[in-house]
User: Fold these one by one.
Assistant:
Number 1:
Amino acid sequence: MQNFIKYRSVTDVYADQVVQDYFQSDEKEKLKSLVLFNILTQNFGPIPTSFPSYFKEYFEKTNVLPEWADFKKIRIAERIFATYGPQILMILCCKSLPMAYTCGNGAEVLVHTGRLVEENGSTQKVFRRLMETTQFVVSVLQEGGLSQGGEGIRVAQKVRLMHASIRHFIIESGRWKEEWGKPINQQDMAGTLQSFSSLILEGLMLSGITLSEEEKNAYIHLWKVVGHILGVIPELSPDNYEDSYTLGLSIFQDQRKESEAGKILAKSLLDFMEYMLPGNLLDGIPLYFLQTYLGKENCEILGLP
């Protein structure tokens, strides 16, 4: 198994510096945090002209795709989503997200932000966060999402800044434990990238959908491009499906551990999925799908029956 220790102390120097510069000015930090988060969660809205120039520089610099981006492969990946979009979004909820929750250290980030945890029985925050995640996936996979001026590029740029701002707040809170590694570190980001790419492909295969090697590698390539925009380092973003799946499996095996944070997140996700189904007759279906796509061991780690 690959040794990931060094990557748990590495984050995203460029995005972290942009956010740090923003919060070092004289205005009250709480108010500024609300303004920044509102802008970042409005996926398609532009950055206000009143924001400092380094925000404009960030969006201009990260708007350029890498030279190795292959639009032929990207178009193939877009066609996969056009054909199997509903299945991909179902696998996102029933495999990708809960697999990320099995990583105990990374799950702490989501619990600390409170954005995927129910409050007083309300699923409103869970709904919003899951809708943001779904919109991110749709934006980068839809036709033209990664073209010049595409929605996918802008959304990924904002997600990268959101990650940096979350790191800032968590570290400043003083409640983060050093043994968890840096919040949203490179290993965590690489694992999340694989949950959106190679794990989705595995889920499609479990669903009886057969893709060619060319199609699988093209899907991985699209997410490798997205990873570049998000600030994932190249050595943690393989070029093909086999290497990507192996990397993702290694990351999940390395970080898999039972945690209260993971159980809280899994319960919130399950409650949300049951809430979205009409009536009570179908309430057992989300758990069945989670059991099918996660397997017994992962369900036990997440406290799922």
Number 2:
Amino acid sequence: MQTRDSFLNGTLDGISIDSLGILQLADRVERLAEIGEPFLLSAAAHPEGWVLGTGNAGTVLLAKRNGELVVLHSAPEPEIFAVWADEDGTVFAGSSPGGKVYRIAGGEVTVFFEPGETYIWGLARAADGELLVATGTEGKLYKVDGEGNGSLFYDSEDTHLRVLKVLPDGDTLVGTAGEGLILEIDSRGAAQTIYDAAHPEVVSLTTDADGGCYAAVLASEASLVDLSKVAVPAQPQATQEGSGEAQQDGTSVTVKVTEGPAAGTAPVGTRPKGFEGPRSEILHISPAGVVESAARFEDETVYSLLWHRNRLWIGTGLDGKVFSLRDGKPVLEKDVDERQVVVLLPDQPGPAFATTNAAALYRISSETERRGLYTSPALDAGQIARFGGLRWRGELPRGTRLEFSFRSGLSSEPDQTWSEWTGGSEGTEVSMSIVPSGRYVQWRAELVAADGRSPSLSEVMLSYKQVNLPPKIKSLTVLDPGEILVPANFNPSSQVFEPAHPNRQGIFTT
């Protein structure tokens, strides 16, 4: 194993993988809070910590920096897809379906704005101080003044305005779902299309220090929610950890977690039915409007982007991973137990991130993990084999440690029939003579830091020898007396033929 993709197939605990496929100890991640809700759908920075929107109970929470959770509001609507917090601590929460914007301040909760739309997908402060409210299923963007008086700011031809990003110059970027458009809307409400993506949904937007923009786009079946324009009763779907559903006035919203490839799925909007793009893609849009692909994820679903600490951070599912983009390649920073990293949030040093399925809140610190474990996938020897040894390449700074242990078995998935893990062994060449014979084997590396320095691992090689099996006779043919078996290119003028046993086709002759 020596490539980034091969190492990513293993299990990481406190380990990161850089763009060159090198394993090393990751930045320490602190789990701030476990949230007793089935889904966490939105989050935003708050002066005291972070404000969180959940489903399917429609709860708005304040997660303080010490991990304390405070319930700010429980809405009658089941989903909170959008939250916003002002610098003075005033919180706004958008509920769905039957969308309302709630204002939470000083312990009082009021209905601040009711647009009459099914979904409220995004909330943000415009440059003039008014509140922007992005909605679906009619694709309308509203501006709401301080008194809660709203006016239609932009009416899109697309079905859902999925995400908002207010730019430093006062314009607003909007990502849609249905047609996968990235729009730029000026202070007068005039819009221009920046990019029309092949993927049908724009799920996240962020801007970098140079004025460029990153956008995450998704294949239709990768969305966390059903974005169909015409709401119908929810149909049974293949889910992971279950799904939540709520109905109101004949509409429905279904929170789902899907798995499988993007190819061949029925798309939202006008995407071609044969669309076979990656499940997720990250696009970079320069200040001049030039669009380039920054990263493609064939199997991961990108849910959130954040420009922080001078690089792009990426939150994904279906395996709960946080990446950062370095030298144009995704670097795995953290792999958590929860299934989806749905929101990335600024923090110092950070970032912080929120997960769903199950719901939790994490924060990345400036310190490096003191120890970490990497467990390889089960490696197949093809048949029962005896294992010889392991060799590795990497770096081992003074005082750090790198220990290897092993286990083997006869089933492709490790289970209780496998052998126990061997004790940890050090050295550039590690003997595997005590590992029981088996068809499958796993290795595990424990990395231990010293003085803030981490060992690293760039290549691992295992040696094994398959157990000899008895020969198998596939056919037996008896020739007539005087006949011999000769190769097709045998020259009859040569009176001498010396057969080799076996020949290149594995045939013996006597």
Number 3:
Amino acid sequence: IENEAKNGLKNTRGTIAMARTGAPHSATSQFFINVKDNAGLDYPSRDGWGYCVFGKVVEGMDVVDRIKQVETQTNPSNPREKSQPVNPPIIRKAKRLTKESSDSTS
């Protein structure tokens, strides 16, 4: 996917952004929720590209915070990272909201 991090959106707590490898246009289907402000991921970043924000948690950040607390182990695909949940949580429901419906939840 073409990196669109230049869209003006910032990696602040509660925003949802595309995960990618070190290559700027390598995002596919993985995303992450920022659990804190991550200005270092904004465009322009050290590599010049940043991580593209495309959404925001509008309800349930308390659930995200609980998921953040699960026990983790070393990630087999990146031994420098202890990010793999020992017992992965299951997200049973997520909704894509229209602009109008998200305005009413704010």
